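Materials and Methods. Structural model of Beta-catenin-like protein 1. The 571-residue sequence of Beta-catenin-like protein 1 from Xyrichtys novacula was retrieved and submitted for structure prediction as follows.
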Amino acid sequence: MDVGELLNYQPDRGAKRPREEDGGSAGGDEDSRGGKQQKGMGAREMARYREAATAAGMEFGGEMRETEELTGDKKKILEKLMDQDEEEPEAEPVDESSVKKMILTFEKRSYKNQELRIKFPDNPEKFMESELDLNDIIQEMHVIATMPDLYHLLVELNSVHSLLGLLTVVDLLQELTDIDTLHESEEGAEVLIDALLEGQVVALLVQNMDRLDEQVKEEADGIFNTLAIIENMAEFRPGLCTEAAQQGLMQWLLKRIKAKMPFDANKLYCSEILAILLQNNDNTRELLGEMDGIDVLLQQLSVFKRHNPSTAEEQEMMENLFDALCSCLMLPANRDRFLRGEGLQLMNLMLREKKMSRTSALKVLDYGMIGPEGTDNCHKFVDILGLRTIFPLFMKTPKKMKKTGTSEKEHEEHVCSIIASMLRNLKSQQRSRLLTKFTENDCEKVDRLMELHFKYLEAVQQADKRIEGEKHEMVRRGEILDDSMEDEFYLRRLDAGLFVLQLICYIMVEISNSGISQLQQRVHQILNLRGGSVKVVRHIMREYAESIGDGKSDEFKEAERKRIMDLLDNF
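The predicted structure was written out as tokens:
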């Protein structure tokens, strides 16, 4: 008899995540445990439903296939479990006393089960009864997940260590760490998370996942539920991401993402967890770089160079991997790894192929080339003929962007940022090649630049007008304009297009200072023709210079501001 199947068997508590391997649909919107309504179905859940397992012998109403017969020990066990389900007495009211009793019963049954397993390691018949008893109490303990204010009892009665020692409680841990439940009682949640971390929960979960075989439906579900536990804890306490990554999670995620397996919900979930680990965290970014994670990401994304994702779920995975790559490029050391891994060549090809990956490839190039750390990437981009790719995107914003959810403003921001980065970082021959592009076809690129300037200037001026009206109204009511309100107004101006306008003005000022007289003449000619003002450009650039270099050293900020002010003097 396969004891693993017995351990993983759970009485029918409603179809939580049916998996279907031959395609088809799945039913069941409700998790009958505690009667909780499922959260809004995202791409990850859709992928789970698409994989609903016929392998478990369940059709999509949750009924057993008539064609499949169970024999021997398995049949007896299932009959016993089903009988217990049918004879289940009315639930007792759950309070602190009954939860204590439940936890102590769990401890006794867990101890008895371990004792019998050690005594009869080769004779499952001897510990079958204790296995069933332990399974029963674990199912009863799911009710604790509805009472986070009693989580402290799990810690006080030392049950967390026992729970972590059992592979069958992944489902229970997922419910206990459900993010909505954790926020119901912050105090109880803190106590539980502290105890789990003290017990090296992530390391144990990773070891468990290493042992599981995803070809078996229950074990694939176990991995999905394990990733849900990690996501819940990371959302409740973002600070644990570094610790989790160092306890083997980063290595496991990279291994799973590059595994030669068909796309499924688990691969999608892995991409999501990886993106979460890398958000605003230089420690995890460094760790991924050291593990050759940049190469793994580039290899996985190369699939989408000439082919669009085949489903919405696969598209979400692609976006997650692009987000992870952008996060990694925030760390200067990873820019070099990206360069050596021929990341620029891949992104350039994606821009040319005009597939769904193009929008995200543009964003990656922006992240890879920005700031002084992007100098080498800027030079390499020109060497691989990237100017031929980027300027057509500058001249005309593609219309087919709705599929990827990218706005016209986002596209124009990334393109302008890439050109601004090249103007800042390129030297000698490569810089000359860039400036020559602006003189081609009777300075058509300068004309386009000025068209964008007036487009975003108008948008920002309208936003400024609305904000001034709101400020005037607040003063009239006697309200105080504090720093937080000013920050909010500034963010609204950026959202209206101020940052794109600043980039455009920077490009105008740079090309006017290039020593190519026809560029400077064309910029001023169009400004005068359309009623523009050098004074307005200078004001925008001064504001840009003041906000530059967040997170950089004071020395860099000062040098960059001086450089911009010198450019303005000659504008």
